């Protein structure tokens, strides 16, 4: 009887053990499953300082993108997107990558934007960016070229193949390799074989088959590594710029920044370079088969100045001034001071505005005819920079003007044409100007013809 009780007790204990183990296992399994299926922890919300930095970077990128400085725009957008990681920063980044010929990276960025999680309280710009990114990613699919690499002389299972230094897994070697348009170097090596390399130029949307041959090593001196190949029957264009780096386009396609060497087909090609200042130059290069055509560009003096003028800049001005009433009378003398807002549009054109306070007085013996004129106007001028150092401008001014007389006081709104016959500039990052200006003022006060010699300072940093 005691032995039977002992056996029963042991069985009960064993059953309880396994039931407890099952409960613990179930809890552990649930914990592991939850951990695996749970979404990743959200990234920390950017701080106010981060957001402000990102906004400034996006403005910088937009300005450079507008002037086709895609390299500078890409750098600014990358920094902004690294901070925010939202659709509205990812979409401009992808567009800059496309302009730089980075189609593979651009499509990856676009897919990330289109798959960005939706939030009920997100801005409308996020949804619009997702939609545009999805459409652009689809269109980009057919533009991305591919390489089909075949290794001859050694088994692909033992060969180590790399494209532009990035190794390709042996299992993926038989599949087309998506690459960006342009020149690519393929290398291959294997135990018992001499290493080999070749260079191929791939156009947008094309699929190129590349065969790379490995020669067995028999103890003799290895053959010299083959030189970088050109396109079959073609040559190369070597583009250089002695001063500033410039973005290069060959036959309308972005190929990179100077200096660079690009394989092309034999024949005539259009080579264009664009400098950060906004100036550009085109040349025709005739390439013979097996030859390298060297093309050298040099930025114009205008670009050297304009690259600092681009964008929004502020400064101040001071000028001695004189004026006469159009209906006649003695000359008035005085001075003007103001602040200047200059917007560099292109190397040739600037837009300038600001505000100017002018005070002039008619100095005559008879106090009855002495007049003090005060005006506050806002000019809007389009400036034409016809050299790095000389410019002219024309526009309109509008504001308030008053003739302070004993009886009565004439005052009211004023509008009239303004023009600057000539401006002489000096300096690049800090610009100093001396300009000769003239204008006519029409308004509710007495009309006048005025002119001044103006000294202007602009900070272009």
TrEMBL record:
<dbReference type="Pfam" id="PF08308">
    <property type="entry name" value="PEGA"/>
</dbReference>
<dbReference type="InterPro" id="IPR013229">
    <property type="entry name" value="PEGA"/>
</dbReference>
<protein>
    <submittedName>
        <fullName>PEGA domain-containing protein</fullName>
    </submittedName>
</protein>
<feature type="domain" description="PEGA">
    <location>
        <begin position="235"/>
        <end position="296"/>
    </location>
</feature>
């Amino acid at each position: 009887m005691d032995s039977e009780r002992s056996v029963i007790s042991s069985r009960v204990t064993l059953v309880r053990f396994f039931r407890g183990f099952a409960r613990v296992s179930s809890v552990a399994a649930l914990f592991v499953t939850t951990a695996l299926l749970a979404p990743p922890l959200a990234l920390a919300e950017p701080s106010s300082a981060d957001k402000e930095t990102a906004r400034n970077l996006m403005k910088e990128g937009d300005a450079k993108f507008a002037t086709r400085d895609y390299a500078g725009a890409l750098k600014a957008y990358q920094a902004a997107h690294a901070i925010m990681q939202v659709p509205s920063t990812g979409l401009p980044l992808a567009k800059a990558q496309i302009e730089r010929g980075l189609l593979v990276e651009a499509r990856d960025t676009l897919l990330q934007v289109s798959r960005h999680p939706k939030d009920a309280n997100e801005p409308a710009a996020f949804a619009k960016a997702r939609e545009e990114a999805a459409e652009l990613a689809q269109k980009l699919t057919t533009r991305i070229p591919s390489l089909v690499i075949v290794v001859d002389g050694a088994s692909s299972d033992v060969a180590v193949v790399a494209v532009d230094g990035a190794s390709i897994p042996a299992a993926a070697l038989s599949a087309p390799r998506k690459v960006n348009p342009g020149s690519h170097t393929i290398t291959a090596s294997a135990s018992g074989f001499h290493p080999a390399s070749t260079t191929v130029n791939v156009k947008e949307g094309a699929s190129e088959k590349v065969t790379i041959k490995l020669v067995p090593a028999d103890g003799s001196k290895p053959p010299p590594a083959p030189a970088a190949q050109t396109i079959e029957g073609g040559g190369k264009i070597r583009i250089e710029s002695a001063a500033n780096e410039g973005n290069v386009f060959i036959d309308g396609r972005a190929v990179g920044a100077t200096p660079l060497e690009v394989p092309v087909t034999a024949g005539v090609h259009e080579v264009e370079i664009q400098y950060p200042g906004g100036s550009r130059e085109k040349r025709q290069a005739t390439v013979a088969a097996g030859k390298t055509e060297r093309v050298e560009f040099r930025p114009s003096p205008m670009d050297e100045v304009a690259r600092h003028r681009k964008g929004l800049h502020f400064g101040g001005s001071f000028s001695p001034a004189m004026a006469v009433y159009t209906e006649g009378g003695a000359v008035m003398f005085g001075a003007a001071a103001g602040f200047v807002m200059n917007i560099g549009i292109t190397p040739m054109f600037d837009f300038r505005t600001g505000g100017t306070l002018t005070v002039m007085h008619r100095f005559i013996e008879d106090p009855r005819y002495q007049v003090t004129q005060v005006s506050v106007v806002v000019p809007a001028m389009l400036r034409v920079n016809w050299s790095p150092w000389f410019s002219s401008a024309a526009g309109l001014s509008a504001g308030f003007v008053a003739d302070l007389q004993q009886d009565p006081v004439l005052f009211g709104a004023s509008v009239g044409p303004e023009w600057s016959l000539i401006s002489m500039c000096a300096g690049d990052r800090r610009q100093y100007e001396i300009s000769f200006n003239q204008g006519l003022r029409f308004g509710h006060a007495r009309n006048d013809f005025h002119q001044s010699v103006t000294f202007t300072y602009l900070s272009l940093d």
